[in-house]
Design brief:
Creatine Amidinohydrolase; 3-stranded antiparallel sheet; 40% helix; elongated
Length: 515
C-alpha cells in the first residue's frame, strides 16, 4: 500500500511538472511586446478644470445675446429592435464628459455673462433594470462640474419656450433660462446635401426650422476649430488609445504566423482592446492578407492567412472617446520578398519625408505633395508608371495622405489651417497593386499604351498592398510619433517577427493580467 502511495506521488509530481512546463510554454511572451502602460489618472479637479476651459472657449466664440443647445445623439439601430452600443455625441462629451443618453446641455451668453444648464433624466428603476445604472444628479455634477441640473422631463417645456421666445423657469425653481435671445447655436448639417450631418443632427435640424425670428448659427465650426488643437489633457488620453493599439498590433503580428484565417488575427487585436479596457474600436478593424490588403476598407476577414503573403492591419482602439488609428503591413512568415520590400520601402520613405516636413506653419497640402513626390519617384523607378504627370501614380496611391485624429477617427477641423502644436494627424501613404486594376481602365489609345508599358512590372508586383500609418503629434519643434513603439522599418519588423509567436488569443484569455 505504501509503495502504491509513493508511486502515485511520483506520477503526480511528474505530471505536475509536465503541466507546468506546458503552461509555462503557453505563457511565453515575445520579449519585445510592449504592454500597455497604466491608464492616465485624472482627478476630479483636473477634469472639471479641463471641461470648464472648453466651455469658456466655446462661449468666447459665441456672439453676445446667444444660446447654445446641445442634444444627446439618438441611438443607432443595428437590426430591427437592437441598437448599437450607445455612443454619446462628441461635442456634448467635449463640454460635459457625460456619456448617458437623453441629456441636454444649454449655455447662454448675455451681457458677457455666461450661464450653464444641464437637463438630466431622473434615475428610473425600470430603465436601470434593462439598460444599466443612470447618473444621479450628484454623479453628473461630479463628472461635469456643472452646478445647475434640471430634470429632463422639463426639456420639452424649455424647448417650447425657446420656440415662442417665452420666459422659462424650471418647475423646481432652480433655473431661469433666457430664451428670447437673438442667436441660437445648434449642431447642424453644413448643407442640404450633407448626408452625414443630416443623419447625425436630424433632431437639431428639425428644431432649427421651428425657430422663427432667431439668427440660427451652426455651432460645428466652433467645435471643429477648438477640437483641432488638443490640450495636454486630451493628448494623455489619446496616447493611451495609441498604446493599447500598439500592443494589439504587436500581439497580432506575433500570432499571425500560426493563424490560418484573417479573423483569427483580428480576434487577437480586439481581444487585446477589451483586455486593456478600451471602450471599443474607433472604427471597424481592417485585417487583410495577400490581395485583400489592396482593398482600403476591407471588412470581411474571411480570407486565408498564407505564408509568403503580406498582411495589412489597420486597427485602432478607442479610450474615453478618443481613438487611435494605426496601420502596419508585414510578412506572415517574417521575411519580406524582394518585390514586397521594394513596394514597402517606397511607402516607408514617403512617410519619413512627410514627418520631416511637418512643423508649425506648414499646411496639410504640402505634406500631401511631399508624399506624392516620393511615391511618384518610386513607382516610376519600378516601372509601374511611365511618367511623372501628377496623375498616373493615382492608379496605385488612391487615397489622401491622412486626416485629423481625435474624438472621431476622421476628426473635425479645417485642412487649410496651418499646423500648430497640439494638432494630431495620421501619416498614412500607401501603394495598392490590385490584381484587376488594369482591367477597369477605359479602353483608350492612351490607356492601351500605358498598360503595355507597365504590364511587366504589374505582373511582378500584382496583389501587393502596403499601407503604413502612424499617429503624429505636431510639436513646437516638429513632430512626435505617438505610435513610435510599434516596429515600422523592414529591419525592425523582420527582427520582431524572428523572435517567434507571443501568447495566442485563447491561451492569453486564461492568463491573469499583470502590468
Amino acid at each position: 500500500m505504501k509503495k502504491a502511495i509513493i508511486w502515485i506521488i511520483i506520477i503526480a509530481f511528474v505530471l505536475s511538472g509536465l503541466t507546468a512546463a506546458v503552461f509555462s510554454q503557453s505563457m511565453v511572451e515575445t520579449p519585445s511586446i510592449r504592454k500597455t502602460p497604466p491608464a492616465p489618472v485624472i482627478t476630479d479637479a483636473e477634469r472639471h478644470a479641463e471641461l470648464a476651459r472648453r466651455r469658456a472657449a466655446v462661449a468666447e466664440r459665441m456672439e453676445d445675446n446667444s444660446i447654445l443647445v446641445l442634444l444627446s445623439t439618438t441611438p443607432k439601430l443595428y437590426s430591427n429592435s437592437v441598437s448599437y452600443v450607445y455612443r454619446q455625441e462628441n461635442n456634448l462629451v467635449y463640454l460635459t464628459g457625460l456619456k448617458q443618453n437623453n441629456i441636454t446641455f444649454v449655455m447662454t451668453k448675455t451681457g458677457g455673462e455666461v450661464k450653464e444648464f444641464l437637463f438630466l433624466p431622473k434615475r428610473n428603476p425600470v430603465s436601470e433594470a434593462w439598460d444599466g445604472k443612470m447618473y444621479s444628479t450628484e454623479e453628473a455634477a461630479a463628472i461635469s462640474g456643472l452646478k445647475t441640473i434640471i430634470p429632463s422631463s422639463e426639456r420639452a417645456a424649455f424647448l417650447a419656450a425657446l420656440k415662442t421666445r417665452s420666459a422659462y423657469t424650471s418647475t423646481e425653481g432652480k433655473a431661469n433660462i433666457a430664451t428670447g435671445l437673438a442667436n441660437v447655436y445648434l449642431l447642424l448639417p453644413s448643407s442640404p446635401r450633407d448626408q452625414t450631418g443630416l443623419r447625425e443632427y436630424g433632431p437639431e435640424n428639425e428644431l432649427s426650422k421651428e425657430l422663427s425670428g432667431f439668427n440660427v448659427e451652426n455651432a460645428r465650426p466652433i467645435f471643429a476649430a477648438l477640437r483641432l488643437v488638443k490640450s495636454p489633457y486630451e493628448i494623455k488620453i489619446l496616447q493611451h488609445s495609441v498604446d493599447i493599439s500598439t500592443e494589439a498590433h504587436m500581439r497580432a503580428m506575433a500570432a499571425a504566423g500560426r493563424a490560418k484565417w484573417e479573423y483569427e488575427v483580428q480576434a487577437e487585436v480586439e481581444y487585446t482592446f477589451r483586455r486593456r479596457n478600451a471602450d471599443y474600436w474607433g472604427y471597424p478593424s481592417i485585417v487583410g492578407c495577400g490581395p485583400n490588403a489592396t482593398t482600403l476598407h476591407y471588412q470581411l476577414p474571411k480570407g486565408q492567412v498564407r505564408q509568403g503573403d503580406l498582411l495589412l492591419m489597420d486597427v485602432g482602439a478607442e479610450y474615453e472617446h478618443y481613438t487611435a488609428d494605426i496601420t502596419r503591413t508585414f510578412p506572415v512568415n517574417g521575411k519580406f520578398t524582394k518585390e514586397q520590400a521594394e513596394i514597402y520601402q517606397i511607402v516607408y520613405d514617403a512617410q519619413e519625408a512627410v514627418a520631416k516636413a511637418t512643423k508649425p506653419g506648414v499646411r496639410f497640402a504640402l505634406l500631401q505633395m511631399t508624399a506624392n513626390e516620393v511615391i511618384e519617384d518610386g513607382l516610376l523607378k519600378l516601372g509601374l508608371i511611365t511618367k511623372k504627370d501628377g496623375m498616373q501614380f493615382r492608379q496605385w496611391f488612391i487615397h489622401g495622405l491622412g486626416h485629423w485624429l481625435g474624438m472621431n477617427v476622421h476628426d473635425v477641423g479645417d485642412y487649410g489651417t496651418p499646423l500648430a502644436p497640439g494638432m494630431v494627424f495620421t501619416n498614412e501613404p500607401g501603394i495598392y497593386i490590385r490584381p484587376d486594376a488594369l482591367e477597369w481602365l477605359p479602353d483608350t489609345p492612351e490607356n492601351r499604351e500605358f498598360i503595355a508599358r507597365v504590364k511587366p512590372a504589374f505582373e511582378k508586383y500584382k496583389g501587393i498592398g502596403v499601407r503604413i500609418e502612424d499617429d503624429l503629434l505636431v510639436t513646437a519643434n516638429g513632430v512626435e510619433w505617438m505610435s513610435k513603439n510599434l516596429p515600422r522599418s523592414i529591419a525592425d519588423i523582420e527582427a520582431f517577427m524572428a523572435k517567434g509567436p507571443g501568447e495566442l488569443p485563447l491561451t492569453a484569455s486564461l492568463l491573469p493580467y499583470k502590468y
